[in-house]
Design a protein that fits this description.
Strand content: 15-25%
Distance between the termini: 14 Å
Strand order of the largest sheet: 2-5-1-6-7
Radius of gyration: 15 Å
Oligomer: single chain
Largest sheet: 5 strands, parallel
Shape: globular
Number of strands: 7
Order of helices and strands: EHEHEEHEHEHHE
Structural class: alpha/beta
Helix content: 40-55%
Length: 161
């Protein structure tokens, strides 16, 4: 496992798993959200799909990597092809809903850092993205089926580490 793509929806445990794997293996870890939304002096800007793939390809040229993020059409195919291991963190819906709210509270209290403004609109969006994912889950499942020889499905991110 030198090129690991960890994919899942909001609050599935992707980041926790990526951090642990990175610590254990020494392989650098990259949050795809930070590739999509680049931090500049004037704030976060969204890169185009082509710019996202360009950044990912640059990371790929440097050697082993762990990339984690939600399923986005802009980079999905690129990472599915590049990765030698794909980990789908498929945590139960009830657990993700609880984690979204818990994370929101921790971020509002300053206990947990984030790259975005943790306001009520963002909280609503996280629940919306979760609903949308569940409605369209079949799309990701179909893509993953094409790469079944390198897919690992986890129901809980702690089972891998």
């Amino acid at each position: 496992m030198n090129k690991i793509f960890i994919v899942g929806i909001v609050a599935s445990g992707k980041t926790t798993l990526a951090k642990r794997l990175s610590e254990r293996t020494g392989i650098p870890w990259h949050e795809l959200d930070c590739i999509v939304h680049h931090q500049t002096a004037s704030g976060r800007i969204k890169r185009t799909a082509a710019e996202q793939v360009e950044v990912i390809q640059g990371i790929d040229r440097q050697g082993p990597w762990i990339m984690e993020g939600t399923d986005r059409e802009s980079y999905r195919q690129c990472l599915l092809d590049m990765a030698d291991t794909i980990i789908f963190v498929d945590t139960p819906l009830w657990k993700r809903r609880v984690r979204i709210f818990t994370r929101f509270v921790k971020q509002r209290l300053g206990i947990e850092a984030c790259h975005y403004k943790p306001d009520l609109n963002m909280l609503r969006m996280m629940y919306k993205w979760t609903r949308d994912f569940e409605r369209n889950r079949h799309r990701l499942e179909a893509e993953l089926a094409r790469y079944s020889d390198k897919v690992i499905r986890l129901k809980d991110s702690s089972t891998m580490t």
